[in-house]
């Protein structure tokens, strides 16, 4: 099946446009988070005692990218690193109260923006879109990590 534009272009352009909307909305509400940092905070809220390596694997991102984002979140005091109870060589990432509060506020903004971006999209269209995305993901031959959104 052919489209007018390459699939990678359509997906990439759409994601970039959505990302710009999130950045603008976060900025408007004085939220000092990038979309990537928001996603990391969300993952940390869903998974207690997760390591940077685990996070890198779950988000399918390079370890150095995750490290930079985590360092920024540490500086903002949204996250702390604590020694693992069973393996002292490992450091678990834990949300601080400040990080949890930032995530909670950011989630409410993100939910509102998501609703705005889906205006005019019917429930059936959204379900079809999700089905198409799932098929594309399966066709890549890679297993997407289970999203706990």
UniProtKB/TrEMBL annotation:
PROSITE patterns: HTH_MARR_2. One of its GO terms (molecular function) is DNA-binding transcription factor activity. Residues 4-138 form the HTH marR-type domain. Pfam families: MarR. InterPro entries: HTH_MarR-typ (IPR000835), WH-like_DNA-bd_sf (IPR036388), WH_DNA-bd_sf (IPR036390). Keywords: DNA-binding, Transcription, Transcription regulation. It comes from Mangrovibacterium diazotrophicum. SMART domains: HTH_MARR (SM00347). It comes from the Bacteria. This is DNA-binding MarR family transcriptional regulator.
